[in-house]
Amino acid sequence: MSNSKNKNCFGGPQGFTLVELLVVIAVIGILVGMLFPAVQAVRGVARRSACSNNLRQITLGIHGYEASHSSFPITVDANGGSFYLELAPFIDQEYVYRRFREKLDTGNAETWQDRFTELSNVKIPLLHCPAVSKIDHNATILGLGKYTTQYYGIAGPVGNAVSSDAAETYSYDSLAPEPAGGPVSLEGVFSPNAKGKYSFKRGFEDIRDGKSNTLAFGEIAYPAERSNGDISQRAGWAFGAKYGPTGVVEKNYIAKTFNHQINEFAEGAINDPAFGSLHSSGANFSFVDGSVQFLSEKIPLDIFKMLSSIRSLEKPEEYDQY
């Protein structure tokens, strides 16, 4: 005897009931909901890894420059350009370097600012963190180019830092030539000299704290509108600094002072914004030896200050515990 329950009114096999179909859809929805966070996490890891690779390539670029010139590229040249201009041939940007080195054409009255603006209108993917949106690739300071960067030279720390055992206190020199712009450190790989001028170049021999203990570059990669509602002051990547009337750096566009905890996005002025990123719970940093590490936002600020100085001979601090 045939089983009529397995056939529809036309004698064929019975299909899904509405209830069964809804159950299947619900199960698929649950599975998609479970997979989505995992996919997002994988994408986040991939972006962080790509960002780390960008920093590594930039840092290896200064190694190549140092091998050729016995020094690192200067943070700003005599006209206010950034170290990325000199570094360009070592990060596969020959066009940028050739344009930078062309003589001024007095026939069209081109100024250095015109040239830096033109160069900053060239987008260099290596200078952008993959985790930020395209709109955050743009500079926010009017007249200073179109494209910015998320990778800044370490100008060094300010104030004091106390060792974890409280046995030592280290003091760091800085200037405040334009108080509203924040302090300019004199203690980092890419800081000016004691008079606040970029009149010399540093090399490996100047890193007294050890290349593996000294930060070279760090991320400042967060949205144009900061958490306090202010607009982040971001210049085009070709701009290094703004000089005052006596030649002292007032605004440091491409090298930043370490003065705030990681990811404290509302803190700091143009010279000392908080380093940070859109990666979860920290940011990528490169050391002078070429290594790149993702450092947690929970690391005490004093440890970051010690890592960002070049010549205080601080005790190595344990930061991997964070």
Protein model, in words:
It is built from 5 helices and 11 strands; from the N terminus they run ααααβββββββββββα. With 322 residues, it is α+β, with helices and mostly antiparallel strands. The protein has helices at residues 18-69, 83-87, 94-101, 112-120, 301-308; strands spanning 151-157, 159-162, 169-172, 174-175, 184-185, 215-219, 241-243, 249-252, 255-258, 282-287, 292-296. A 5-stranded mixed beta sheet has the order 9-1-6-10-11. A two-stranded antiparallel ribbon has the order 2-3.
Mean pLDDT: 85
Q: Helix content range of the residues, please? A: 25-40%
**Going across the major beta sheet, what is the strand order?**
9-1-6-10-11
Radius of gyration: 26 Å
Reported for the largest beta sheet, the result is:
5 strands, mixed
Order of helices and strands: HHHHEEEEEEEEEEEH
* Number of E-type strands: 11
- Coarse shape: globular
Spans of at least 5 consecutive residues with low confidence: none
Alpha-beta classification: alpha+beta
List strands and helices in order, with pairings.
Layout lengths: L17 H52 L13 H5 L6 H8 L10 H9 L30 E7 L1 E4 L6 E4 L1 E2 L8 E2 L29 E5 L21 E3 L5 E4 L2 E4 L23 E6 L4 E5 L4 H8 L14
Parallel strand pairs: 1-9
Antiparallel strand pairs: 1-6, 2-3, 4-5, 6-10, 7-8, 10-11
Notable features of this structure?
5 helices, five-stranded mixed beta sheet, two-stranded antiparallel sheet, 14% strand, 11 strands, alpha+beta, single chain, 322 residues, globular
